[in-house]
Every structure is written in structure tokens, then in C-alpha cells.
Amino acid sequence: MSQELDLNFIRKQFPAFSQAENRKWAFFENAGGSYMAKQVIDKFTDYISHKRVQPYSPYSMSAQAGQAMDLSYQRLAELHNVDSSEIILGPSTSMNTFILASAFAKDLQKGDEIIVSNQEHEANAGSWWRLADYGIVVKEWQIDRKTGLLDIAELDNLLSDKTKLVCFTHCSNIAAAINDVKTITNKAHTFGAQVVVDGVSYAPHQIIDFKDLNVDYYLYSLYKTYGPHLGLLYAKRESLEKIANRGHFFNADKLRYKLDPAGPNHAAIAAASGVVDYYEAVYNHHFNSDASAPSKAKKLNQLFNSQEEKVAKIIIDYLLSNKDIQLIGPQTHDTSKRAPTISFRHKNMSSAKITAALTKQYIATNNGHFYAYRLIKALGIDLEDGIVRLSASHYSSVEDAKKASLALESIFGS
Ligand SMILES: Cc1ncc(COP(=O)(O)O)c(C=O)c1O
Hints:
The chain has 414 residues and is an alpha/beta fold. The protein has 15 helices and 13 strands.
């Protein structure tokens, strides 16, 4: 029998679950931002209490501050099976794509082509579309308007010898479908193009092996993976060596600084290794054999996904049973096909009204386009009202899912 996630243990790692106010709520806004693990909070508190000075000077507090930051780069790199020089920790994913696109604006030539999907959160769309201002041809890889899904055959029609970049999401924050990153990346590479993958909605559900995916650039947001408010950008070493420097000119030979012009948030970076500490605590609690980082990640992913699947099944089963409800994305709870990010709308009731009714029953959720503006527009859904989104995480409980499903039943009938 496969191992089950010990939810009691998991929830004890998140101080939010012990707060009286939070306990009233079934929390389903995880795709917006997750609760923070205590390992992260402890490291953040330690940094701002004892080490909050300019890091990397020789005096002890400063040296320790620098060590705490270095540790985060190193441990996150190990987690993702890459080198620490390939990890950039910027303010957010939106800011990281903005800077990356500004580097490509310098490197690309007039007439070069890039492909951008319309399944994206705007963070991985707007900055790329603006490259059109520099004479770069932007082609849209469009979703199927009925299902919200991307079809790789459509990409085949867009790729050409002029393609330099393909920008797409690993998993949409609305449609939730898991795109086949390896196949798409292989196709792009065949044409000599690079890929930029937005993993913000995937990373909270899977610890990702960047080397195995063989991507050029991959982004996600640590505040959605139980960590501090930062965006992680993985840039493959060969790509980072070639890309235009967007940092201070005298730092051009320091790889990471090329795409980190802002001067990073030291305390948040120091706290980021707490995410890896959290994963390690979960691993050690459930397994008693040591293993390589990738095989630990594999086991944790299985644990997390089996819990997420149980939770998603309860909500999705209800939504699929109601013929007046449209579930966006894959019509299944299977976590190999979708994230437990559940978006839907009702034929006869606005999403705002549904949100209000769910909120009354202490289901923490919201409605709207969630910045996946182009996707919601392509689906023909009202942009203001959008969809209702119930997004789970591995710490979501079956009880919370039942509470959500009962609340939906009370609103729409069984
Ligand atoms: C899929 C996806 N991509 C990108 C972003 C933007 O991330 P950030 O808030 O770090 O800029 C979000 C934020 O919700 C998202 O859901």
C-alpha cells in the first residue's frame, strides 16, 4: 500500500492552521498564495532579528547574513537538480519575466519570431507581447476555445526557423491542465528556439527537476510554495552566459546579477531555504531511508499528489454532477493531468454571487480572471465576473473539501 500523507504533522508545520480566525475557514485560495511554513518563518525571524545588516562584509553578523543567503541559493539549486549559479531570486515572477524580456529585447533582431500561448497568466504574456515594439514578430499559440487546452499540433504550425523563443505555462492558473513541457521544449529546441516556462501554478504541487525538463528558463513564485514573497528564476547556464546583462555594468561577469538588477530582498532570500527544510522535515517524517534529492522529490510528489487528488475528487465530482456548471480544463481529478486548481462557473448564477455565498459558509475563495485575462477572454467568459476558483494544496483536508462540496450543494442543489 502506498504511503499516506500525515496531515496532522503537515498542518503543524503551518502556524496559520493554529490561529482561531484561520480555523473557521476552509482555505481554497492557495493558487493566490499559500500559507507559510514555520521553517521559513523561523529563518525570516532569525534574519531580521540578528542579521539584518549589509551582507557579505567580514564582521560576524554580516558574514552570517551572507551565508544564510548563499545557503538558500545552494539548497534551492539542489532541490531542483541544477547549479546554484543558475538560480536567481527576484521580487516576483512578473518582475523576473519583465527583466528577462528586457534582456531579449536587446538580443533579438527585427523579424525574429517568438511564440506566446494565450493560456498564460499575464506575467508570462505582456512582457513578451511588448517585444513587438522592437520589430519582433509575436505569434499567439491559441487554446481550444471550448476546452481551454493547448494543442501541441497547433504549436507545430507556428514554429519556424525564425522562432527564437516559445513562452508557455507548465500549468495554467485557471485551466489547470499540465502541459507536456518536455515535448514542447524538444520541439522548440529542434528549431533552435529557447523556452520560457511559467511554473507558478505547477511548483506548489510538484518539486521540479529543471535539468530533467531541459528547459532554458523556468519561473515560479516562492510565496505560493510555502515560502517568502520572491520569484525564482532558473536560467540554464549556457543561456545565462549569452543573455544581455540587465544588472550594473561592473557586475556583468557575475552570472546571477545579470538578471537581478534590483538588489534582492536579503531577509526573504535568507528565509527561502526554509522551504527546503520544510520538504526535508516532511520526507524524514514519512520515510526512514536517505536518498538522492531527485528521488526524495519523487516520493514527496507522490505523497502530496495523492492527498491533493482525494481533495480534488470530492469537489470535482460534485461540479461534474451538476449539468449547469462548467468546469474549466481537464474533466478529471487526476493529478497527472491537472493541478487541484478548480475553476468553474454556473449557467444561471454570476461567479460573484457564488463567491459571496461560499464566503458566507466560510469557504475562502474568490472569482475573476486572476490575471489570466487572455485565457478568460478566449473562453468567452465575462472578464469582470470571471470564474470561481477553489484551489487546494497538499495541506488541504478531506473535511475542508466536504465542507466546500456541501456549500456548493446548498447553493445549487444536489
Ligand atoms: C500562473 C501564474 N504565473 C505568474 C504569476 C505571477 O506571479 P507573481 O505574483 O510572483 O508575479 C501568477 C500569480 O498569481 C500565476 O498564477
